[in-house]
Amino acid sequence: MSSHPDTPQMIRAFDADGREILVAREQWRDNVLVGAIQQNWNDADQLAGLIIQSLNDGFFEEMVRPAERLMELDANPERAIVLQAIVYMKLGRLDDCERVLLDFCAQHGETGIVLTNLAKVHAERDDDAKTLDTLWRALQLDPNQDNGLGWYEAIHRDVGGDAAGITAMRKVAALPHSWRAQLWLARGELGSHNTAGALALYRESLSRAGQPIPGDLLMQMSGDLGNAGCIAEILELAGPHFVAEAHGLPVGNNLIKAHLHLGQRDAATRILTQLHAMNRPDWKEHLAYWDRELAQ
Predict the structure, then answer these.
(1) Mean local confidence (pLDDT), 92-101
(2) Which of 48, 83, 229, 239 has minimal CB crowding within 10 Å?
(3) Residues 168-182: what's their mean pLDDT?
(4) Looking at the structure, do residues 243 and 278 belong to the same domain, yes or no?
(5) Where does residue 174 rank: exposed (0-12), middle (13-18), buried (19+ CB within 10 A)?
(6) Is the CB of residue 91 less than 8 Å from the CB of residue 126?
(7) CA 251 to CA 226: how far, in whole Å?
């Protein structure tokens, strides 16, 4: 198997007690990954999750057969085709990547995430015009793609500087159903000490996002407000929308911190109790920290 420069040599995992462990890459592949593939071979959701994690860990060649199997199993054809396309792209199989994406569009119609991945194929071939055109079509279909939006802004900023990047974000923010671009514009307003402008953008974002509010919206908004010292505004804007099962530790952590900053220990304890009830081993260390803080 070829080795990529950014391939992790140790795989991060958690034991039954929530403690982080590191496993050698070859040991993980031979002793864990093979068995996990077999165990999840007939479960589309579990197999998709395994593929995503394995791609993050740098196992590309090993995911060819699981991705092809997911195509047979998955009731969500978009998820299956995107994961298959990513596997092919990681292996440099651009023609195969383009083929499966175009076949999906012909059968199911274009979607934002599929077109964004098609734009990546054009980018790998250094076709800048086709890349930008395809990416814009992708954002028109789904303006809230995190990677696609950031990429679109970066393309314009690289050519025309920060002002061009802001203009690109505003163009996306004007699309129907856009809420993510407003978050990035709000961050810029906070950086310019225009708190009122930022709050207006956050309220617009929340009003467009639907229910439940996406966790990454609440996480970025609460984090940026905290960095700007707007603690009460975190609780005003993010607090009413928090659902532990949907938003978890990333948002809950920011809310606990805000409540404690304002001396609202009972409210912080309520959120901490909700997070403990999720029984997430990978949260154990973080929650123990807040247990200690609240015990003081």
Answers:
(1) 98
(2) 229
(3) 98
(4) yes
(5) exposed
(6) no
(7) 12
Closest CA to 222 of 245, 204, 199: 199
Q: Is the dihedral of CA 54, 43, 217, 150 positive or negative?
A: positive
> CA 43 to CA 190: how far, in whole Å?
45
Residue 77 and residue 119 in one domain: no
- Each residue's pLDDT tens digit, 64-81: 999 999 999 999 999 999
Does one domain contain both 181 and 246?
Answer: no
Residue 224 lies in a domain: no
Listed in sequence order, the residues at least 6 apart from 229 whose beta carbon sits closer than 8 Å to its beta carbon are: none
Residue 234 makes CB contacts below 8 A (sequence gap 6+) with: 221, 222, 225, 226, 254, 255, 258
Kindly state whether residues 110 and 203 are assigned to the same domain.
Answer: yes
Q: How much is the pTM?
A: 0.85
Tell me if 203 is assigned to some domain.
yes
Tokens encoding 82: 């995107």
Supply the mean pLDDT for the chain: 94
Q: Is residue 138 domain-resident?
A: yes
Last residue of a domain, one of 177, 207, 237: 207
Give the helix ranges, DSSP H, for the chain: 25-28, 34-39, 44-56, 64-73, 77-90, 94-108, 112-124, 128-141, 146-173, 180-191, 195-209, 215-227, 231-237, 244-261, 265-276, 284-295
Residues 88 and 47 in one domain: yes
Question: Is 214 part of a structural domain of the chain?
Answer: no
Q: Average pLDDT in the 109-135 region?
A: 98
Q: Which domain holds residue 262?
A: 229-295
